[in-house]
Design goal:
This protein has helices at residues 61-74, 104-111, 126-146, 151-169, 187-193, 272-285, 294-298, 317-332; strands at residues 19-27, 37-44, 50-56, 80-83, 115-118, 196-201, 207-210, 213-217, 230-235, 241-245, 248-249, 252-255. The chain is an alpha+beta fold. Among the domains are: 19-169, Nucleotidyltransferase, domain 5; 195-255, OB fold (Dihydrolipoamide Acetyltransferase, E2P) (Beta Barrel), CATH 2.40.50. The strands form 3 sheets. The chain has a 5-stranded mixed β-sheet with strand order 3-2-1-4-5, sandwiched between helices. It has a 4-stranded antiparallel β-sheet with strand order 6-9-10-11, with no helix packed on it. A hairpin with a 5-residue loop joins strand 2 and strand 3 (50-56). The protein is elongated, with a radius of gyration of 33 Å. It starts with 18 loop residues before the first strand and ends with a helix.
């Protein structure tokens, strides 16, 4: 007989900035005025204060990088983030090669000295789950009154909404300490942290593969000795790619291949809308192929004959009589 499971309530953390719950909520935030999208929510566990909101197309490493950069600029670095088991935060495969068991987002937090904790159930991070339901009511109504129809206008409206919401509903923490730490990093250094960094093996022709592309390093004194070694790639949200060896940027050229979703690729439910939008965009840009028939290949051109059954002139009585008359004329002469 199935037993009912009970989830005991958990007390709030005592200090502001000690634990920040994060989650993404996919919803039709602009109702019928715009397409559905995802809202990234950062909420402080001790005070229930909205720390960061941002509309994005879907939950991905780059979208969380952008939201995290804004969070660090406004508040500093918290002690820890509390999230679900989304692939952005946690490596599902225990035997995964590379990455030292970390995702790109986890690697960035490790360099920033911020811990990432994953909840075992939705009830464990119930504060941010309930906040999603609240925002799907209050935020949607406020944006409807403001006539907001897209993500750009929505992101511009969110700071005003957060200020008003926190003034009404945020509570005082049990301790007055602020555990946020300042992030004393140069902008370029922060950009290098909040990006996708991977290692690639350089082949005998000074080439390596990266996201269905073939990258060829230009031959220099540095690159000649990189055959059989690993270089580090820095992929940024704006599409830039930087290839480095021990901090030195290497010149390269790109041989493009057809950019498409891999056949039968495993796609998470939270990224399905974004992937389908990307697929449709690529399909609209692709020129349909011109299929030639065998007649076109052989250069055949129709002679303009009328459709229907062709006339058999050899058995036509008129033709036979005309030929017989022509044959009998010389004999009579």
């Amino acid at each position: 007989q199935q037993r009912r499971s009970f989830h005991q309530p958990r007390l709030r953390r005592e200090a502001y900035g000690e634990l920040v719950q994060i989650d993404g909520s996919e919803h039709r935030w602009f109702e019928d005025r715009g397409p559905p999208c995802t809202l990234l929510v950062f909420i402080d566990d001790a005070t229930g204060k909205l720390m960061q909101l941002r509309f994005v197309r879907s939950e991905s490493a780059f979208s969380y990088f952008a939201a995290l950069e804004l969070y660090l600029q406004d508040h500093g670095a918290p002690v820890a983030f509390y999230s679900d088991k989304h692939s952005v935060f946690r490596v599902a495969k225990k035997d995964a090669k590379g990455g030292q068991g970390m995702t790109q987002f986890g690697r960035a937090l490790c360099e920033l000295n911020i811990e990432i904790l994953c909840a075992n159930s939705s009830q464990a991070k119930g504060r941010v789950e309930r906040m999603n339901q609240t925002l799907q009511d209050r935020l949607i109504k406020d944006m409807r009154l403001a006539g907001i129809c897209d993500m750009q206008a929505g992101n511009a409206f969110l700071p005003t909404f957060m200020e008003g919401y926190n003034a009404r509903f945020a509570v005082a923490p049990a301790r007055s300490d602020n555990l946020h730490r300042p992030v004393n990093l140069a902008l370029d250094r922060l950009k290098d942290i909040l990006c996708k960094r991977e290692q690639r093996y350089v082949g005998a022709q000074l080439t390596f593969s990266f996201e269905r592309k073939r990258i060829m390093l230009e031959e220099t004194e540095v690159t000649r000795g990189l055959v059989g070694r690993y270089v580090e790639t820095y992929a940024y949200a704006d599409g830039r790619l930087d290839v480095r060896w021990k901090g030195y940027s290497l010149p390269y050229t790109v041989f493009d291949k057809d950019q498409r979703v891999t056949h039968a690729a495993i796609t998470e439910n939270k990224r399905l809308s974004d992937v389908l939008a990307y697929v449709k965009e690529r399909q609209d840009q692709q020129v349909p192929p011109v299929i030639k028939t065998n007649s076109d290949k052989n250069g055949y051109k129709p002679r303009g004959r009328k459709p229907g059954r062709r006339t058999d002139y050899m058995n036509d009585p008129a033709v036979i009589a005309r030929r017989a008359k022509a044959l009998s004329r010389p004999a009579a002469e």
